[in-house]
Amino acid sequence: MRKPTPAGRRAARRPPPPDLPPHIIERRVARLREAVQARRVLELRYGGAWRVVHPHALGRTGTGRIGLLTWQTAGLARGPGSPGEGWRMFDVARIEDARILHATFAPRPRRAARWTAGIGTPEAEVPTREAVLEQTELALG
Fold first, then answer.
1. What is the pLDDT of residues 49-82, one digit of tens each?
2. Residue 123: which domain range?
3. Backbone CA torsion sign across 85, 36, 66, 8
């Protein structure tokens, strides 16, 4: 039997996510997939607070939920003394509102072949930072 991860223990303490109809989840996933693939900045309301994030990957987490891996640039920090900026995994069913902004972003550097062990097989993910920079150089060249 596998030992629960810290994320799994935190998920077990949270109240269950809202029971959203499948068509709402599918529509939400489609919009988030579009934002990931276009590297568009998102403004999310999650846990009652607005956050500005750069979505990097979308897919099923180890808990079976649909997760959105982001680099948060502004908004509510995890707690006192915690920076507001950093990697965050959001449960898509718990996102209260989302706005796709006009701004785009350069992907954060990857430390491994996958963004995170939290998402097994991404449904959508941004290209590597190197690939984006190479495309930019070709376009300018």
1. 999 999 999 999 888 889 999 999 988 776 666 6
2. 6-140
3. negative
CA distances from 41 to 20, 26, 74, 93, 96 (A): 25, 20, 11, 19, 17
Instruction: Answer whether residue 123 is part of any domain.
Output: yes
User: What's the confidence (pLDDT) of residue 35?
Assistant: 96
Q: Where are the beta strands (DSSP E) in the chain?
A: 40-46, 49-61, 66-75, 86-91, 95-104, 119-125
Which phi-psi region, left, alpha or beta, contains residue 16 (left: φ > 0; alpha: ψ -120 to 50)?
Answer: beta
Provide the 10 A C-beta neighbour count for residue 10: 11
Overall number of domains in the chain: 1
Stated pTM of the model:
0.78
Closest to 60 measured CA to CA, from 116, 123, 137: 123
